[in-house]
């Protein structure tokens, strides 16, 4: 009888534990965002949350999914991208940044040419076609000495190929605009390709070893383009956000970020 009672008690406790677990729904792009979330799944379970991870490869569905209440939190964007989204929607659709995690250097990756010294008149360079990343790409190309940008250009400016003409484009470079996630596949058609960090990782590229030129953590971009999770503003201090943060700020997540060639924006000491 005692053994039967003990067995029933174990089952009851197990059932209670399952019943108490809350679902934490996250929508994320594959690398390193979904990788990070997947890495901490067991830690979330120990904190009482059952992970529901939705992995997507675009940049357009994640924010509306959270704003519409279909998903609790997303993980795919840096702060300027989120600011741009918030400026384009009504107040009740806006989101709040939480849990800053890392910086992903944008890089100029070899296409049909390997060294920037090989640049020639009329060479084509692929750049992201969304305004935030396009301006960032042109600033990177200017930093690498390939072009100049209009005086006063900042990360908040909007710069397009039409602005890079005359003396600003001494090599007469052609700029091929494409969705950021498609650019890695275009390297065989252009001299160089400017690729976001997460898309580079998906293509097996590391900014530290494969890029002809890349942003640094000390650059203006490195200080500005910090990747974050995003939630509805009323959830910014929610328990699930606090639990997620404690699971993210750990040594294993730190190590994964570094392994991918990115720069953590939290310290291991803070994580511990």
Write a structural description:
This protein is α/β, with parallel strands linked by helices and 272 residues long. It has 2 domains: 20-104 and 225-271, Periplasmic binding protein-like II (D-Maltodextrin-Binding Protein, domain 2, 3-Layer(aba) Sandwich), CATH 3.40.190; 107-216, 3-Layer(aba) Sandwich (D-Maltodextrin-Binding Protein, domain 2). It contains 11 helices and 11 strands. It has helices spanning 2-20, 30-39, 41-46, 62-67, 79-88, 131-143, 197-202, 220-224, 239-248, 251-259, 268-271, and strands spanning 22-28, 49-55, 73-78, 96-103, 107-110, 124-128, 174-178, 192-195, 213-214, 226-231, 263-264. A 6-stranded mixed beta sheet has the order 2-1-3-10-4-11. A 5-stranded mixed beta sheet has the order 7-6-8-5-9. Helix 6 (131-143) links the parallel strand 6 and strand 7 (174-178). The termini are far apart.
Question: Key terms for this structure?
Answer:
alpha/beta, D-Maltodextrin-Binding Protein, domain 2, 2 domains, 5-stranded mixed β-sheet, 21% strand
């Amino acid at each position: 009888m005692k053994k039967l009672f003990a067995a029933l008690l174990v089952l009851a406790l197990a059932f209670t534990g399952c019943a108490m677990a809350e679902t934490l729904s996250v929508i994320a792009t594959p690398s390193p965002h979904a990788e990070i979330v997947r890495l901490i799944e067991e830690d979330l379970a120990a904190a009482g949350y059952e992970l529901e991870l939705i992995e997507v490869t675009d940049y357009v569905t994640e924010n509306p999914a959270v704003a519409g209440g279909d998903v609790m939190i997303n993980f795919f964007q840096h702060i300027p991208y989120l600011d741009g989204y918030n400026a384009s929607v009504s107040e009740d659709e806006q989101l709040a940044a939480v849990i800053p995690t890392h910086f992903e250097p944008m890089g100029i990756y070899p296409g049909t040419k390997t060294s920037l010294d090989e640049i020639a008149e009329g060479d084509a360079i692929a750049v992201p076609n969304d305004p935030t990343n396009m301006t960032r790409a042109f600033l990177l190309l200017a930093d690498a000495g390939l072009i100049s940008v209009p005086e006063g250009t900042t990360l908040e400016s909007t710069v397009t190929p039409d602005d890079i003409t005359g003396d600003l484009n001494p090599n007469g470079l052609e700029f091929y605009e494409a969705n950021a996630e498609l650019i890695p596949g275009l390297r065989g058609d252009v001299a160089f390709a400017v690729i976001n960090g997460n898309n580079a990782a998906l293509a097996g590229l590391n900014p530290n070893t494969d890029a002809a030129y890349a942003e640094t953590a000390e650059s203006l971009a490195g200080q500005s383009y910090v990747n974050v999770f995003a939630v509805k503003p009323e959830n910014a201090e929610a328990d699930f956000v606090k639990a997620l943060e404690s699971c993210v700020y750990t040594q294993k997540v730190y190590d994964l970020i570094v392994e991918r060639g990115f720069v953590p924006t939290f310290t291991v000491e803070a994580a511990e």
